[in-house]
Write a structure and sequence with these properties.
The protein is mostly helical. It is built from 18 helices and 4 strands. It is about 60% helix and about 0% strand.
Length: about 475
């Protein structure tokens, strides 16, 4: 830990924020037995303390996302435990712990971007397997697998992090271009387009149209970062073609949409308050009744409306806690997404991964909040980390762990292939014979030099 003092101050800040909310529940909440408040306090403060003790054992470069995560999770637990009266929501507490565990899994799995890139084919296969599981085990045109009377799983939620990893890319991958007709394309980009198109058609067939904008946002962010990578030469043609294709698909989707979807697109909530516009009309009334500071925890009416703790949870919080508190919750969610983008990740792959996660969370927030406020058609998408829901909570925690991994990545040098050296082959024993010593050979006299006769001297000659 590089700065222990900052870590301690961050812990104190989170504890004070949760303590202030619990203080408001104790003095302003609607409850018959004070033990319900005491159990809620023990769960929130106890989880904070355990999390702060365990977190330093994970060596990270920064813990900012982790503090924002525990802050918003326990805020959601307090919200959920006060709707219609103070009562500890044990099921939501269990899903929170599962989300924290999933966060650690996402952290360890996504630290090494080279390892994930090598496994991208398995990611594509995993998306196909999940769609097959939905077809085989959910029944006719459904997205839920029932595990009991009160427990169900939505496998399509796990497609979101896999699609984020599939759309994430590195600069080196985008330089492997091939000539196709009159375009320089990357084959992996065409494969991803086919995968996203298949996922969206599958969602339409399963009547879960509310999740299609989330998958589309993940792909669009990945597509832009794939064609606009640093120092990459790209033309405007792919962007223009992509925008035109999206517009055409949107028009076709509206035309072929089921009747109940078209009714939601063009419904007047005030003229149909008891029909398709019932939830939105009640949500608007609840937001107006709550005002800036709310009607106090447990004193609202929206807990009598269907999906008050999931699809219109923003309106339910606004009614009991006030619009100011709802906006503060949204601000914490924005901080979770903004921290990895403001503090640049250490690799282009991690950067594109963070952009995909931020796009998914942003679209989910917009669909939930604007749908509750009747600014867009009601879609029934959950609010990350706050809405009641087991599968969506766990998947959101997993994606938060991916954001943490982008802030503290692990770089490993690629393994070099060992070159096999040719070893000298041994000579068979039958062919091994002693080599006789070689006699030195005298060089023959050179023929190009004329030979002179030797000069002989006598005694008489020397006297002369």
């Amino acid at each position: 830990m590089s700065n222990p003092l900052a870590y301690v101050f961050s812990c104190i800040f989170v504890l004070l924020a949760h303590g202030a909310m619990l203080f408001s529940v104790f003095y302003n909440g609607s409850y018959d037995d004070v033990n319900a408040v005491i159990v809620l306090m023990a769960a929130v403060i106890g989880l904070d303390a355990v999390y702060f003790i365990i977190l330093p054992f994970f060596k990270q470069q920064t813990y900012a996302v982790d503090f924002m995560l525990i802050l918003i999770l326990n805020m959601g637990l307090i919200f959920q435990s006060c709707f219609g009266g103070v009562e500890f929501r044990f099921k939501h507490f269990i899903t929170m712990i599962a989300a924290l565990i999933a966060c650690r899994i996402g952290y360890f799995a996504c630290r090494d971007h080279r390892w994930i890139e090598d496994k991208r084919k398995f990611i594509w296969i995993g998306i196909g397997i999940l769609m097959g599981v939905i077809l085989l085990f959910t029944g006719s045109r459904s997205m839920w697998i029932s595990l009991g009377e009160s427990t169900s799983v939505q496998p399509s939620e796990f497609i979101k992090p896999l699609l984020v990893l599939a759309c994430a890319t590195s600069v080196t991958e985008q330089q492997k271009k091939h000539k196709l007709l009159c375009f320089n394309v990357v084959y992996e980009n065409l494969i991803l387009f086919g995968i996203v198109a298949g996922v969206c058609l599958f969602q339409w067939w399963c009547r879960d149209l509310g999740s299609i904008p989330t998958f589309g946002a993940i792909y669009v962010s990945g597509f832009l970062l794939r064609i606009c990578y640093p120092k990459g030469k790209y033309s405007k043609k792919p962007i223009i073609i992509a925008v035109a294709a999206l517009a055409v698909l949107a028009v076709i989707g509206i035309i072929v949409a089921p009747p109940y979807v078209r009714d939601r697109l063009f419904v007047d909530v005030w003229n149909d308050k008891n029909g398709h516009g019932y939830q939105q009309a009640q949500a608007l009334i609840g937001i107006a009744d709550g005002g800036w500071f709310g009607k106090r925890p447990g004193h609202g009416f929206l807990h009598n409306v269907f999906a008050y703790n999931s699809d219109i949870v923003f309106a339910t919080i606004s009614e009991e806690w006030g619009l100011l508190f709802s906006v503060m919750s949204v601000f914490v969610l924005l901080m979770i997404m903004a921290i990895p983008l403001v503090n640049p990740p250490r690799s282009y792959y991690h950067g594109s991964m963070c952009a995909g996660i931020a796009a998914a969370f942003s679209v989910q927030m917009a669909l939930n909040i604007f749908g509750s406020c009747n600014m867009i058609p009601f879609t029934g998408v959950t609010l990350p980390f706050i809405s009641m829901g087991g599968t969506s909570m766990v998947v959101s925690g997993l994606m938060a762990g991916m954001l943490v991994a982008a802030q503290s990545p692990a770089f490993k040098a690629p393994k070099k292939k060992k070159q096999e050296q040719k070893k000298p082959q041994p000579v068979p024993s039958q062919q091994m014979q002693p080599v006789p010593p070689q006699q030195p050979q005298l060089l023959p006299p050179r023929q190009d030099v004329p030979q002179q006769p030797p000069v002989s001297y006598t005694l008489t000659d020397r006297r002369k």
